[in-house]
Design a protein that fits this description.
alpha+beta; elongated
Length: 372
């Protein structure tokens, strides 16, 4: 790597860090100003829980605890656009100080000047992919919170209505939530059905706790009411039940209750869910392929944006920025829409890669129009 490459990459990374910091700071400051009372209330709860008198310090901790995971999500989501912005600032700065003119005068190609930024952009987007794969799945329960839930060790309570499992049983619960990372159902009712869909047994319990080792729910005060066989002349019976095996685990329940939850999971977890009959296999495959196609899409958008700032002749930085912003944000947002579209008539793999197929020729044309 030449001295010039290192200089361009250093300038590019510095601009990337500045832009990302400004974006995150605006998000945090705006959120804190809007929900300051919630953060203070959370700080008071934390201070009381820890037996501390420093409410201020625990309020700061509440702000960090809520916004830290969200910032990691923002990086994974917006890294592609921030890479384009950093490239624009880098090339504009090089042109303003006449360094770009000196490079061109020495016979260096425009493509050669762009190459270090493309490599650095690829590395930054790879970091976003690693963030999505290894860090965000561990923090999914925190990312999905709202500010009022910071002070609680439990996730948001959600009712479950007649959710079927692999055996055709219908699960209902007054509330479903995660308590210290463990799935909990309260006021549970399970209806077991025969092949004709008629109820043959009803299981009720005050609560159910997910047992990862046994792959099922441990019931508290559980009992079953068995319907008498038609024409038998016998009355129904009742017996105790303390465990129900099922593939309807907390991850599956959250995925069916929260449409965006699957996007927070790692590819490894998604591969496991792809074999679960309770989850839309096509949607899972589309999300897995979308992770890789998003990386390619970000690089295509970066290549398109670079062409607006690479010029042998003096150009207006504002005009170039407006044009690049319009094209790149439009291409990036439309790519996300196409990747996540629910298109029943198109293969999920094709749906995930559709924006890449469309933007490859667009990028090729913009690069070909560049006067080097």
């Amino acid at each position: 790597m030449s001295i010039l490459d290192r200089y361009i990459i250093k300038t590019y990374l510095l601009n990337f860090v500045i832009l990302l910091t400004v974006l995150m700071a605006l998000f945090v400051v705006g959120g804190v100003l809007i929900d300051l009372d919630e953060y203070v209330a959370a700080g008071e709860v934390f201070a009381e829980r820890q037996g501390s008198d420093s409410t201020f310090m625990w309020t700061v901790w509440a702000i960090i605890d809520f916004n830290g995971p969200v910032q990691l999500m923002l990086y994974a989501f917006f890294s592609g656009l921030v890479c384009v912005g950093a490239a624009g600032f880098t090339l504009t700065g090089l042109a303003r100080t006449r360094e770009l003119t000196a490079m061109l005068s020495s016979g260096i190609s425009m493509y050669r000047i762009a190459m270090p930024m493309l490599l650095a952009g690829f590395g930054l987007n790879m970091l976003a992919s690693l963030d999505q794969e290894f860090i965000l799945p561990q923090l999914a329960h925190k990312v999905s919170r709202n500010v009022s839930e910071i002070k609680s060790t439990r996730s948001k309570a959600q009712p479950v209505y007649f959710m079927a499992d692999e055996s055709g049983r219908l699960f209902s619960a007054g509330n479903f939530q995660l308590v210290d990372g463990v799935g909990l159902l309260t006021d549970v009712t399970l209806i077991e059905r025969d092949a004709r869909g008629q109820a043959v047994q009803r299981i009720m319990a005050s609560q159910a706790i997910w047992n990862e080792d046994r792959n099922g729910w441990d019931l508290t005060d559980g009992y079953a009411l068995v319907r008498p066989t038609a024409g038998s002349g016998q009355s129904g019976s009742m017996h105790g039940v303390d465990f129900v095996p099922t593939t309807l685990n907390p991850t599956v329940i959250r995925a069916r209750l929260e449409s965006n939850y699957l996007n927070m999971l790692s590819v490894r977890k998604l591969q496991t869910l792809a074999g679960n009959e309770q989850i839309d296999r096509g949607k899972v495959i589309q999300i897995m392929h979308g992770r890789l196609s998003q990386l390619v899409l970000n690089m295509l958008v970066l290549a398109m944006g670079l062409t607006f700032f690479l010029s042998r002749e003096p150009t207006s930085a504002l005009s170039a920025a407006v044009k690049a912003t319009g094209l790149c944000i439009g291409a990036w947002s439309m790519g996300l829409v196409m990747q996540n579209a629910d298109v029943s008539w198109l293969n999920p793999v094709a749906t995930a890669w559709l924006p890449v197929v469309i933007y490859i020729p667009v990028t090729a044309v913009t690069l070909q129009m560049l006067k080097t």
